[in-house]
Amino acid sequence: MRPSPAVLRGLTFALAAVGLALLLAASRAQDPRPWLRGVLLVLGASQLTAGWRLELVGQRRVAWLHVAAGTVLVLLALRP
């Protein structure tokens, strides 16, 4: 079962929003880890978006590379 583009778009925007919120919060903090997590979430969300859009136009081989890269970035950002 493949999720609809609206669900994927909403998930991507949520990840990007969390990443931007972490970036804003980290700009006031002395600890660089929240800033790095924010950057990783924003980059991961952009890679996931690129992959899902490429899959929608039929370029699956390239799309899966973007989705894999985005997934790795998001998982790196979410690990403790």
Question: Quick gist of this model?
Answer:
The chain is mostly helical and 80 residues long. The protein has helices spanning 5-26, 33-56, 60-78.
Description:
The chain has helices at residues 5-26, 33-56, 60-78. The chain has one domain. Helix 1 packs antiparallel against helix 2 and helix 2 runs antiparallel to helix 3 (60-78). The protein contains 3 helices and no strands. It starts with a helix and ends with a helix. The protein is 81% helix and 0% strand. The protein is mostly helical.
Radius of gyration, taken over Cα atoms and rounded to an integer in Å: 14 Å
Share of β-strand residues: under 5%
Strand segment tally: 0
Structural class of the secondary elements?
Answer: mainly alpha
Q: What's the helix and strand layout?
A:
Elements: H1 5-26, H2 33-56, H3 60-78
Helix pairs in contact: 1-2, 2-3
Transmembrane segments: 62-78
Keywords: Membrane, Transmembrane, Transmembrane helix
Keywords:
80 residues, mainly alpha, transmembrane helix, transmembrane, membrane
